[in-house]
């Protein structure tokens, strides 16, 4: 994995610090060209991986990449599925069965489709595979070496202790997509224990890691202990604690943990991208483990 | 005190006794979005063990049966009769709250009920009486009170930083119904579907607990935008006990919002505060030295006020409210936040708004 991963929150009005800022972002990135321009500036600074939600609008970005194969030949995308608000809003409106009906491809209630058979037999893993295929369809022909499940789903499965689901996800991503499965979580220590308990070793786990302890459930101390002592491939996100930390002090904190493989961040201007990327790379190469 | 007699007590028995002494046995009724979310929060809780769930959907129950060791039921009475539960979370459609909560209270089970509390205040009053009579911990899921920024707003208002209040606005917007269709309980007004019960209840509850209890409502409007049977937007003018008045403006058919966004704006003689779940913006005519707030604008973010939790799902507030419920049971005290009684008052305001909209 690259040391620096470029995120997509800024494009889709996700701002954990301010609802108002998120609306400003929604206005700024209303056209796909605006997103592509920022992505291209990120590429120009040497960033080679875009970690993105399976949001409807990413489909158009994928179209753009497919129609410029030379330009994006070595570019990687790390899909993060699902785009949870789509499902959450649908469940409020349609109920759980209604949501399955809306999003599982084909007619889920017809016995003649794969979905229908999976539904009638209550083949949950089969349903999950259908939903994964539906979410990942937009990425066909694009390099996706790592495929993540979003924290809402990871943490729900973790909380419900449905460990078999992780196992099924892990092998499906490896076998069908020939990619490495990744997990985004707000509960890193508990997730790592859970994955280890079902034989998933050295997993890629993306979690909040910041000096403030923001969104580090159970406290900063246990996160630090796991980062120092356990075997896994950590990706740090929310390193600026949603903007509450200055980049320099944020990165200084990360440099204490040689195990962190990559840092995920998002920004909208080329200068800001360049500055943050250099800061991350400098601190990561200065660590004792490198 | 556990007294060991001879060596007869097996380790497993000892473990059982210790577990049963320390861990609360919990059940969840209703496995929709909120119920599943509660299950995922109660499951890993250090002081509780999720032993049973109940729902009418065989699809959902089969998933729990297949992937977990939690006992599943399709009849809530059977669940509460069979399992020795210390507490339950009721997250069914609103019209089932009354019979289920009544049954759980009669069985002596501490009860957490999703919002809104009841469909009629008569039923709500009966449940409040019963919970108090039996001295059971009772809480309703108005989770905004567990969001750091709203707590900070409450504190700043109590400290009087913006002086005497002159007006307020309570708002919530989000993208629940953005196309014309219907079909679930949310499209049936008699079942508590609709934007008033689902969205506006949160705002009314925040207003009543942070600013003051509304006693009069005027000019209530229900707008149907895409739904056929229920309102998609609610507007009303509320007057509080103190005489202060303000505006309620709620719309769940606004797709310019990615998810539900709730906010309160307070106008005072010395300044103004705008608060939502992510930030609190304070404008002061003069500096408030005690609070370390300058003249003009100060913006503070939830990163500063977020309540730390051991397990996070969708927001600290969902775990923090369950932490509060469980800690009240363990410490044998009643909750100061979101009791049935407080939620009942929100139901009363909802009734006032419905009556006013028809007048």
Please supply descriptive tags for the structure shown above.
heterodimer, A: TIM Barrel, 8 strands, B: 359 residues, Rossmann fold, 2 domains, 8-stranded mixed sheet, 11 helices, 14 strands, 36% helix, 24% strand
Low-confidence stretches of chain A: none
Name the poorly predicted regions of chain B: 1-19
Looking at the structure, the CATH topology of chain A is TIM Barrel
| Class by SSE composition of chain A | alpha/beta
What is the CATH architecture term of chain A? Alpha-Beta Barrel
Overall form of chain B? globular
Report the portion of residues of chain A in β strands: 5-15%
Arithmetic mean of pLDDT of chain B: 91
What are the secondary-structure elements of chain A, in order, as H or E? Answer: EHHEHEHHHEHHEHEHEHEH
Assembly state (oligomeric): heterodimer
Structural class computed from helices and strand pairing of chain B: alpha/beta
Number of contiguous helices of chain A = 12
What's the CATH H-level superfamily name of the largest domain in chain B? Dihydrodipicolinate Reductase, domain 2
Tell me the greatest interface. Answer: A-B, 50 and 47 residues
What summary fits the major beta sheet of chain A? 8 strands, parallel
The gyration radius over C-alpha positions of chain A equals 19 Å
Strand content range of chain B: 15-25%
């Amino acid at each position: 994995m690259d040391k620096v991963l470029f995120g997509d929150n800024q494009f889709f009005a996700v701002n954990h610090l301010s609802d108002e800022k998120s609306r400003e972002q929604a206005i700024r990135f209303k056209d796909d060209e605006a997103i592509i321009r920022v992505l291209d500036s990120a590429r120009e600074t040497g960033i080679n991986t875009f970690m993105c939600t399976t949001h409807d609008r990413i489909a158009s970005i994928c179209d753009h990449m497919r129609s410029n194969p030379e330009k994006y030949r070595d570019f990687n995308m790390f899909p993060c599925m699902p785009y949870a608000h789509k499902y959450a809003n649908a469940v409020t409106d349609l109920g759980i069965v209604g949501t399955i009906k809306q999003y599982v491809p084909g007619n889920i209630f017809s016995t003649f489709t794969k979905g229908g058979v999976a539904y009638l037999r209550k083949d949950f893993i089969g349903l999950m595979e259908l939903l994964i295929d539906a979410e990942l369809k937009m990425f066909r022909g694009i390099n996706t070496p790592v495929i993540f499940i979003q924290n809402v789903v990871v943490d729900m499965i973790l909380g419900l202790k449905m460990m078999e689901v992780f196992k099924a996800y892990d092998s499906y991503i490896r076998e069908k997509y020939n990619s490495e499965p990744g997990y985004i979580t707000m509960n890193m220590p508990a997730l790592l224990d859970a994955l280890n308990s079902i034989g998933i070793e050295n997993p890629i786990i993306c979690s909040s890691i910041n000096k403030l302890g923001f969104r580090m459930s159970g406290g900063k101390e246990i996160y630090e202990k796991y980062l120092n002592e356990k075997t896994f491939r950590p990706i740090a996100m929310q390193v600026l604690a949603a903007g509450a930390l200055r980049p320099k002090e944020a990165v200084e904190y990360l440099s204490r943990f040689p195990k962190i493989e990559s840092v995920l961040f998002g920004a909208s201007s080329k200068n800001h991208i360049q500055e943050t990327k250099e800061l991350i790379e400098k601190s990561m190469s200065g660590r004792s483990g490198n | 005190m556990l007294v060991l007699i001879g060596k007869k007590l097996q380790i497993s028995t000892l473990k059982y006794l210790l577990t049963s002494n320390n861990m609360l046995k919990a059940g969840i009724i209703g496995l929709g979005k909120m119920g599943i979310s509660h299950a995922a929060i109660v499951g890993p809780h250090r002081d509780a063990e999720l032993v049973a769930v109940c729902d009418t959907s065989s699809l959902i129950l089969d998933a729990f049966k297949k992937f977990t060791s939690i006992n599943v039921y399709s009849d809530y009475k059977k669940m509460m009769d069979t399992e020795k539960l210390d507490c339950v979370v009721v997250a069914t459609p609103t019209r089932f709250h009354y019979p289920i909560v009544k049954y759980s209270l009669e069985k002596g089970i501490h009860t957490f009920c999703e919002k809104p509390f009841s469909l009629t205040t008569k039923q709500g009053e009966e449940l409040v009486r019963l919970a108090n009579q039996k001295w059971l911990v009772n809480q309703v899921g108005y989770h905004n009170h567990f969001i750091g920024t709203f707590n900070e707003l409450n504190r700043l208002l109590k400290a009087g930083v913006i002086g005497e209040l002159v007006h307020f606005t309570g708002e919530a917007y989000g993208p629940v119904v953005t196309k014309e269709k219907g079909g679930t309980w949310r499209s049936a007004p008699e079942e508590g579907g609709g934007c008033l019960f689902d969205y506006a209840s949160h705002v009314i509850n925040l207003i009543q607990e942070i600013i003051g209890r509304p006693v009069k409502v005027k000019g209530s409007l229900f707008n149907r935008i895409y739904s056929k049977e229920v309102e998609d937007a609610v507007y009303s003018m509320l007057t509080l006990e103190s005489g202060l008045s303000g505006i309620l403006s709620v719309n769940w058919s606004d797709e310019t919002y990615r998810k539900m966004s709730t906010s309160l704006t307070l106008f005072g003689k010395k300044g103004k505060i705008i608060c939502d779940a992510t930030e609190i913006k304070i404008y002061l005519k003069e500096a408030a030295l005690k609070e370390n707030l300058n003249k003009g604008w100060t913006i503070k973010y939830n990163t500063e006020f977020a309540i730390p939790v051991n397990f996070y799902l969708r927001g600290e507030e969902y775990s923090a409210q369950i932490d509060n419920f469980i800690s009240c049971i363990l410490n044998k005290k009643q909750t100061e936040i979101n009791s049935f009684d407080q939620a009942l008052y929100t139901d009363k305001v909802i009734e006032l708004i419905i009556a006013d909209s028809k007048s």
